[in-house]
Amino acid sequence: MQLNETHNPQLRSWVSSANTGKTDFPIQNLPFAIFRRAGSSETFRGGVAIGDQVLDLAQVADQALMSGLAQAALVAAAKPQLNEFMGMGRDAWSALREALSLALREGSPFVNELTSALIAQSEVEFDLPCQIGDYTDFYTSIHHATAVGSLFRPDNPLLPNYKWVPIGYHGRSSSIGVSGQSFRRPMGQTKAPDASEPSFGPCKRLDYELEMGIYIGRGNDFGEAVTIDNSDEHIFGMCLFNDWSARDIQAWEYQPLGPFLAKNFASTVSPWIVTMEALAPFRRPWHRDEADPQPLAYLDSALTREQGALDIALEVLIETEQMREQGELHSLARSNFIHSYWTVSQMVTHHTVNGCNMRPGDLLGSGTQSGPEQEEAGSILELTKGGKEPLSLANGEQRTFLEDGDAIILRGFCEAEGSARIGFGEVWSKVLPALNKK
Amino acid sequence: MQLNETHNPQLRSWVSSANTGKTDFPIQNLPFAIFRRAGSSETFRGGVAIGDQVLDLAQVADQALMSGLAQAALVAAAKPQLNEFMGMGRDAWSALREALSLALREGSPFVNELTSALIAQSEVEFDLPCQIGDYTDFYTSIHHATAVGSLFRPDNPLLPNYKWVPIGYHGRSSSIGVSGQSFRRPMGQTKAPDASEPSFGPCKRLDYELEMGIYIGRGNDFGEAVTIDNSDEHIFGMCLFNDWSARDIQAWEYQPLGPFLAKNFASTVSPWIVTMEALAPFRRPWHRDEADPQPLAYLDSALTREQGALDIALEVLIETEQMREQGELHSLARSNFIHSYWTVSQMVTHHTVNGCNMRPGDLLGSGTQSGPEQEEAGSILELTKGGKEPLSLANGEQRTFLEDGDAIILRGFCEAEGSARIGFGEVWSKVLPALNKK
Asked: Where among B86, B109, B127 does a domain terminate?
């Protein structure tokens, strides 16, 4: 993916909060979300983050300041869901990005018109960015797969297919919520290893998963595969994604058809979608260790080798009830998406190679992005070695798994020499007590 | 579920083809579909089957012959998708059924008005009956689970959780099509047991699955479980469902997260949804063998014991290209939904017990409905004992798995002493050659 003037690190915006060097949302980012004024009954519409503000795309679209493909893309992006815009494809996404970059740049002729379309991010609430027709979760961190595998199958942690197949499974779209989601601790069947029968009650091993979400852009027709070199046309952008997990329910139910109730009670996305074009400066060469099998031809290409990896720094933080009162957070782990064993393009290509059709707005989870080191683990299951080694938090509290009232925050950002730092904002979501404690 | 006058086997319709005693669609059935005139550019709209005709609900709704809840339900059912009608709940479904039964009965005052709203079924084409937000596949035939388990895991066919947990997993909604669907043989990774590495190519072990589909009616709120005794409010009706499967892809990919590309290339529903109210006369007592674990409390109730099972006779037929030219079919197997280890209400209750929210129009697959006898197997994998014993078809052809050009037809009907016979029509779908034979 080529860099262009919108990536120029020298660009400054007339929105001064975009120029701090510390914001997640400088003019080089320009991520999309669906928003309205908090607590209002306004219609949700598309917005773009700039510094600490949201640019209201519906207001900008009404002013018809842009023209051609950029204006058409703007009108689509201003709707209450981004699906139509996502389905327009890369030329449209790029045209709107370029037009927004020009309009928000210092020296823009539209400062007066756009100033009235800015709303402080602190004053808005978000909706899901699009209708998610299907949600698929991958399993692309070999470090996570090995660590979790060794807990669920001590004699057989990493299965023989892992290094050949980008393992994935279908998840639940109805229970995906946007940052701010609170959900009840799930009830369910569990069976202790030494129990003769399962029992029913609230989950005792509640966990988060540090994932990236990937939104599909243009869809592919039923029966037509996306090739690895054409996959960029079909990938709109990325978000932070917390795929909540009930480990005790999972252990009892997951064989032979995979996780089900252990996962489908809640999953939470960050509001902002950072486009693949904004992420272009953070692409890195991708390679497979020589000791490992090389990918089959349909999953391999020169472009993948040159720039298949993405350098995205990730962090998980916890906010317990006690911390919330004190205004504190505790960092649980840092990792990076660059450790992913499979690339985003490989996920999309594999998913469609059998003719499976994707639709604009479909969501892929990357799987938990654990790094190679123990402190880079993307779940509490891994951090506590299966709940055996409790974590000590900075305020003196301890955790083996999550407790009622705990919130988990995921953050992510990209930094590189010669590029402006961009970020994903955050996703926050909180555990409520079970509805029916038996 | 109570019987009422709409179930009276003595009822006759002024549409004479409904009174043959052999049609799937007598006046006691009244199933819903979404249709338009074949080959036209008409708007799709709701229809009800009566004999060999479709009653065009959009035309009936415009005439405002009904009133109150029945008319409101009619207006919703006339739309291009049934989701709104499905979400109205049981009183609305019942009110419309009663009104349609009266209007289509001999002696109806509306014969003239409705005659103009009839279209021959042979002249229409169907769309999916609703937007399927999420699709979940269960695994409720213990005979199928044991037979398939013994092929995939000879030493461990039926896993310890099977008799406790209604096992299910999420499937793909985008690739679900309505009867008439043709799909390309999927490409994918497979690995022969004696091969050192996987290879990529067209599926060589393509299979069908004889399933029932269950459509959700009223949804449940995020975080709120559906109780077993309240589940009827949330279950709209049932259809025939062919969950196409690529057994060689499945064997290589399915551990540890379940089937993925082996299933998501195509699934096919019958056009007609038979409502739970129409199925009421075919409910039967449900019991669990004393030697087996009894269901946990949240999956058990007096109502389930009294009438949780459903007597639905099922049949799978094949139409090879050669048979198509001769106008022949070959029956592969007969089974019955009464063999299901878990009831429809148990599936819905289990699915939501962790707070997972269902939406109107969500689809549950029952899993392959194999009966206890070998000739009742609901997949060709079982009929050929894992592809080891080819089937001889009536016209002299043989099959181990499906070949290009083969179509599979599923049929289902209900018969009982003192009740009118009702049926599901059929679902037909066909295998096309792979796009890219490497």
From this structure: B127
**pLDDT band of A399, cuts 50, 70, 90:** very high
Q: What share of chain A is helix, strand, coil (3-state, %, to 5)?
A: 25, 25, 50
User: Domain total for chain B?
Assistant: 2
- For residue B437, the model assigns a pLDDT of 47
Q: Same domain, yes or no, for A261 and A367? A: yes
- Which CATH number is B106's domain given? 2.30.30.230
Residue B294: inside a domain: yes
User: Which residues constitute the domain of residue A387?
Assistant: 135-432
Q: Which residues of B touch A173 (CB under 8 A)?
A: 133-134
- What is the spatial distance between Cα A261 and Cα A175, in angstroms, rounded to a whole number? 11
Q: Which residues of A touch B223 (CB under 8 A)?
A: 183-184, 432, 435
Domain match, B114 and B154 both: no
Instruction: State residue B438's pLDDT score.
Output: 44
Does one domain contain both A73 and A39? yes
Residue to substitute from A128, A257, A299, interface B, most B β-carbons within 10 A: A257
Question: B174 and B109, same structural domain?
Answer: no
Indicate whether B109 and B180 sit together in one domain. no
Task: Answer yes or no: are the C-beta atoms of A189 and A321 closer than 8 Å.
Answer: no
Model pLDDT, residue A152: 81
Whether pLDDT at B208 is above 70: yes
Average the pLDDT over B273-302 and give the result.
Answer: 97
Q: Are residues A256 and A326 in the same domain?
A: yes
**Is A437 a domain residue?**
no
Please report the pLDDT score of residue B419 as a whole number.
Answer: 97
**Environment class of residue B389 by beta-carbon count within 10 Å: exposed (0-12), middle (13-18) or buried (19+)?**
exposed
**Cβ–Cβ below 8 Å for B258 and A253:** no
Longest dimension (CA), chain A: 74
Residue B91 has pLDDT above 80, yes or no: yes
- Any domain includes B411: yes
ipTM comes to: 0.96
- Active site includes B144? yes
Single residue among A127, A151, A169 that ends a domain in this structure: A127
For residue range B263-281, list pLDDT tens digits in order: 999 999 999 999 999 999 9
pLDDT in tens, A144-176: 999 999 988 888 889 999 999 999 999 999 999
**A159 in contact with B at a CB cutoff of 8 Å?**
yes
Print burial letters for A137-162: b (CB count within 10 Å at least 16), e (below 16): bbbbbbbbbebbbbbbeeeebbbebb
pLDDT at position A366:
98
Question: Residue A49: what pLDDT?
Answer: 98
B219, B234 contact by CB (below 8 A):
yes
With 90 as the cut, is the pLDDT of residue B297 above it? yes
Query: Are residues B169 and B119 both part of a single domain?
Result: no
Residue B433 in this model has a pLDDT that exceeds 90: yes
Average confidence score pLDDT of chain A = 97
Residues of A whose CB is below 8 A from B222: 174-175, 177, 183, 266
Cβ neighbours of B356 in A, within 8 Å: 172, 174-175, 261, 264-265
Looking at the structure, do residues A205 and A96 belong to the same domain, yes or no?
no
Can you give the pLDDT at residue B154? 87
For B121-198, list the strands marked E by DSSP. Answer: 124-127, 135-138, 168-170, 176-178, 182-184, 187-190
Tell me how long chain B is: 438
CA–CA separation, B324 vs B393, rounded Å?
13
Closest chain A residue to the Cα of B254, Cα to Cα: A257
CA distance B157 to chain A (A): 10
Peptide bond into A256 cis (omega under 30): yes
Does A258 sit within 8 Å of B174, measured CB to CB?
Answer: no
A 241-270 near B (Cβ less than 8 A): 246, 249, 252-261, 264-266
